[in-house]
Specification:
The chain has 2 domains: about 120 residues, Sandwich (Immunoglobulin-like), CATH 2.60.40.10; about 110 residues, Immunoglobulins (Immunoglobulin-like), CATH 2.60.40.10. The chain has no helices and 20 strands. Strands 1, 4, 6, 7, 8, 11, 12, 13, 17 and 18 form a 10-stranded mixed beta sheet that branches. The N terminus and C terminus are likely disordered.
């Protein structure tokens, strides 16, 4: 007997004034159930595109985020890798579902939804590493992100404390790091090479325990971020 765990690590998050709600987790027995349904809701008419992502382990201990597709009003658009068994139902401005048919072990992953005011012109894959960091107090921590297929200029780091919403930490544009007021001390950020950016915490404290997420955007509108992944400390 084996199980597949579906876990949405952004269960109730805020980007600007937009709030998205989705279930915390879903445990499926493939030998008993052949279909999984994950709900997503935001109810904001200004965001006609609802996007779904799959976040799972990759080679070398890294984790990848891949776009499954998007729902525009009631019209689903799936990426080619997901057309066979994945689908979207509902409405992109309200309640919608990701439906996975004939589930199997390869579907074990984290899934989450996002909303956008603009169309997704291309699929994107962002790799972040390491997935988890365990370190002593006052030690240093460093995490990295890389745009596999895109070269967006606006790069971000977010922090999510347990039970809290997302906090924007820093925006990097053309190598220049602009920290939010709360994060101006105790954190560093840089772009180390083409399409790669990093976040450093020189002296880790207990209050730094959180999920750290990176994102990339074609434009500078923070509320319209579409590509997000995470590291745990």
């Amino acid at each position: 007997m084996f199980f597949i765990l579906f876990f949405s690590f952004l269960t109730d998050f805020v980007l600007s004034s937009l709030v998205i709600k989705q279930p915390a987790n879903l445990l499926i027995k493939p030998e008993e159930e052949k279909e999984a349904r994950l709900d997503c809701y935001h109810g904001n008419n200004d965001y006609p595109y609802m996007l779904w992502y799959q976040h799972k382990s990759a080679a070398g201990g890294r984790r990848t985020m891949e776009l499954i597709g998007y729902l525009h009003y009631e019209n689903p658009n799936l990426e080619k890798n997901f057309i066979a068994r994945f689908n979207f139902t509902g409405h992109s401005k309200g309640q919608a579902q990701l439906v996975i048919s004939n589930i199997n072990l390869t579907d074990s992953a984290e899934y989450f939804c996002a909303a956008s005011q603009h169309n997704v012109s291309q699929s994107v894959l962002i790799t972040q590493w390491p997935p988890y960091i365990s370190i002593r107090t006052r030690g240093s921590a460093e995490m990295h992100c890389y745009q596999n297929d895109t070269d967006y200029e606006y790069l971000y780091w977010y922090r999510q404390l347990r039970g809290k919403g997302l906090q924007l930490m820093v925006t990097l544009v053309v190598g220049n790091a602009n920290f939010e007021q709360e994060f101006k001390t105790g954190f560093q950020a840089k772009t180390s090479k083409d399409k790669q950016w990093s976040l450093m915490i020189p002296g880790v404290e207990q209050k730094d325990e959180a999920v750290y997420l990176c994102a990339a955007s074609l434009h500078g509108a923070v509320a319209n971020l579409r590509y997000i992944t995470d590291s745990w400390i």
